[in-house]
Amino acid sequence: MKPSPDARPERWLASLALAIIALISLANVVTRYLSGGSLAFTEEFSVFLLVVLTFGGAAVALRRNGHIRIGLLERALPWGPRRALILLQWACAITLLGLITWFGAKLAWQEYQWRSLSPGLGLPQWWYIVWLPLLSAAMLIRQTQQTRDRLRGRLDDES
């Protein structure tokens, strides 16, 4: 059995985000139980970390060929048209991820220039937003790696 490809930095980042979400949520529950009040920062950080977790996990799933897709047509086609379909899938994904990366970077830059602050804690908003283009760029790279491996026969359709 071939070892599955890995996206170690994204896997660690997503795992860390999940662990921090669990810890701050637990701390918030305990604080609310003991004092009747809640910790102000937990919601803002949890939402931010959930975005990191989502994009990091999606990058890992891309690299491991774990995203859901319907392969019926793909499996029914001979190699030439199948290769064209795989490349079309790649082009669509790269276009979407490229747009997310571009507009996410543009938004993060604008938030930096405007010195926007987060509504809850008053932290610079770009601290949260900059992760969107960074992790969508990681997904773009992982999509390209996955497509290359699929075209070279290193990844099974149903792995």
Automatic annotation (TrEMBL):
InterPro entries xrefs: DctQ, TRAP_DctQ
Membrane topology: Multi-pass membrane protein
Pfam family, one: DctQ
Location (main, coarse): membrane
One GO CC term, this protein: plasma membrane
Location in or out of the cell: Cell inner membrane
GO BP term, example: C4-dicarboxylate transport
GO molecular function, one term: transmembrane transporter activity
TM spans (from-to): 12-33, 45-63, 84-105, 125-142
Keywords: Cell inner membrane, Cell membrane, Membrane, Transmembrane, Transmembrane helix, Transport
Organism domain of life: Bacteria
Start and end residues of each Tripartite ATP-independent periplasmic transporters DctQ component domain: 21-152
Subunit structure, interactors included: The complex comprises the extracytoplasmic solute receptor protein and the two transmembrane proteins.
Its job: Part of the tripartite ATP-independent periplasmic (TRAP) transport system.
PANTHER family reported for this sequence: 2,3-DIKETO-L-GULONATE TRAP TRANSPORTER SMALL PERMEASE PROTEIN YIAM, TRAP TRANSPORTER SMALL PERMEASE PROTEIN
Similarity field: Belongs to the TRAP transporter small permease family.
Name this polypeptide is given: TRAP transporter small permease protein
Source species of the chain: Bisbaumannia pacifica
